[in-house]
Structures are given as C-alpha cells and as structure tokens.
C-alpha cells in the first residue's frame, strides 16, 4: 500500500492514537481571534438582532461561547432561513460572508421569514485556520446524533429546541489548495489509509443533496453568483472530485451519507457553497460577496417557490 510519505505526524498505515492527535494539536498555531473577528462584530449588531448563546466549548484554557443571531422580531408563524458559516474554521469567506450578510441586511425580510445565522460554528479551528476541531475531528462529518464533534452536536441541539419550520438552509464553505496539500494528507495519516492525490476545481460551485435535489434552486444561485465570480468547470468526464456534475457548477451526492451540516433540518431548499479563494481569477472580497449573494438569492428563491 502506498501511504502519504510526507505528513510529519504518525506512522504510515497506522491510525493515530491519542498521542498523535496531541502532537497534531500542538502543531496548530493561533493566527487570529474569534473574539475580535466574530464576537465584537455581533456585539455591534445587538441593536438590530437577537444574539443568542447556544453552547460553549472548553478546550484546555480556551473558552468559546457559541453564538447564533436571530431576527429581532421573531415570529413563530413564519418559516426560518438558516445560514451557517465556519463549520470548517479555515474557510474564511464563510464566516465573513455570514457576518457581511447580517451587517448589510436591514428589514427586507421582516414579515416574510425569520433569519437564523450561526456565523462561526467551529471557533477553535477558526482561530487556527484549521479544518478539524481540537480533537482532530471534522465537524462537517458529525451532524447526526452519534456525532463526535461538540460543535455539531451543540448546533443540532439548538436547532431542535426551536421547533421551527425551516424553509432554506445555506451552509457556507470554501475549497482551498490546503485541502490537497494539508488536510487530505492529514486525513490519510490520521486514519492510516492511502493518500491518493486529487485536484481542486478552479472556481465557485455548489454541493446539492441527491435526496433533496432542487436543481432549479441550485441553478438560480449559480446564475446570481456568476455575476460576482467565476464558476468551476467540470472535468472532461463531467465530474468534480469523482462526483457527477448535475448542472453547471453543481455537484450532487447523498449528503446524509457524510452527515453534512446541510442535512440538519428538513428544509426543502438546501445547499452547500464552495468558494475557491486561491484562484488567481478572484479575490477575498469577491469570495465574501459570492457568499452573501448566495444567501440572498437562496432566500428569495425559497420565498417565491
């Protein structure tokens, strides 16, 4: 078996023990601060929204309040639009896009839909620009009752407690070069499996759930985002990452098989964004704008359909 020859932690072909996980954790560096980038922004918005703490993470000496933002005049008779960002902490435009949407949004959805935004689901990873949480677990594979990520379980519990009718859920993500040169090799090393090199699509795309396939919804978002940044093409065989491209810029597979965040509600309209910030053809500002445009178009489409 060919294993990843260069990942510096672990023994090729052997899954990590707690010792290797500790080594991985110690190799992570804090580059930014959740309080400054997220909590302080939410504090400035408290006059326009209801800010709710739905949980708390305690990792060594670090304490992270988990925050959600609700429409100030929440109406139980209205459906709910759920926006989640930062499930993977290193996917910056997801967090910034969620906060940007909240900052830009005024009262245009009043009386139509309740807004519920979880802008940074995984704050420990956000600070370290990492995919995994403190325990070397990918939160976006843990959205089910037996999941092993506190971040995912806390958000699921909060969503369940609302007993709300969700109409749309947009989960904001990125695909970066570090997926291929860091996180997939780390995954192979952690699980003691073969690392097979792949490619990163150049551009924005969406992940649709084949069990909840609304390609008209996905296409409407792609059409709007195309005005902001370029859309990733499929390969010569019509695939991305080995999954079929169901429509221009839309990959579709069974999201439940991977316990993805987008499966958390029974909303009829769900999608996961994937922005490619490392492309020479885009910028950080365009990536954030693409996330905001996605959220706006998704809500508009859901309300009109």
TrEMBL record:
InterPro entries, alphabetized: Peptidase_M14
Residue ranges of every copy of the Peptidase M14 domain listed in the record: 30-305
Ranges annotated as spanning the membrane: none
Protein family: Belongs to the peptidase M14 family.
Protein name stated in the entry: M14 family metallocarboxypeptidase
Species, as recorded: Buttiauxella selenatireducens
Classification of source organism: Bacteria, Pseudomonadati, Pseudomonadota, Gammaproteobacteria, Enterobacterales
């Amino acid at each position: 078996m060919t294993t990843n020859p260069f990942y510096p932690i672990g023994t090729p072909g052997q899954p990590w023990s707690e010792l290797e996980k500790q080594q991985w954790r110690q190799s992570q560096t804090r580059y930014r601060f959740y309080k400054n980038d997220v909590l302080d922004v939410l504090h400035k918005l408290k006059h326009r929204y209801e800010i709710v703490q739905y949980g708390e993470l305690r990792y060594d000496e670090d304490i992270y309040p988990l925050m959600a933002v609700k429409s100030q005049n929440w109406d139980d008779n209205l459906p709910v639009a759920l926006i989640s960002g930062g499930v993977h902490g290193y996917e910056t435009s997801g967090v910034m896009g969620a906060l940007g949407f909240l900052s830009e949004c005024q009262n245009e959805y009043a009386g139509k839909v309740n807004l519920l935004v979880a802008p940074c689901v995984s704050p420990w990873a956000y600070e370290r620009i990492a995919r995994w949480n403190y325990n070397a677990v990918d939160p976006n594979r843990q959205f089910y009752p037996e999941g092993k990520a506190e971040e995912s379980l806390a958000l699921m519990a909060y969503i369940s407690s609302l007993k709300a009718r969700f109409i749309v859920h947009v989960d904001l993500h990125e695909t970066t070069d570090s997926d291929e040169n860091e996180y997939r090799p780390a995954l192979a090393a952690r699980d003691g499996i073969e690392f097979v090199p792949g490619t990163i699509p150049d551009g924005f795309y969406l992940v649709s759930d084949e069990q909840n396939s609304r390609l008209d919804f996905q296409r409407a978002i792609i059409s709007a985002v195309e005005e902001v940044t370029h859309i990733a093409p499929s390969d010569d065989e019509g695939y991305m990452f080995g999954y079929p491209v169901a429509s221009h810029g839309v990959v579709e597979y069974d999201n439940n098989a991977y316990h993805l965040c987008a499966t958390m509600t029974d909303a009829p309209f769900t999608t996961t964004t994937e922005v490619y910030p490392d492309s020479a053809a885009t910028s950080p500002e365009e990536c954030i704008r693409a996330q905001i445009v996605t959220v706006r178009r998704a809500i508009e489409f859901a309300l009109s359909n």
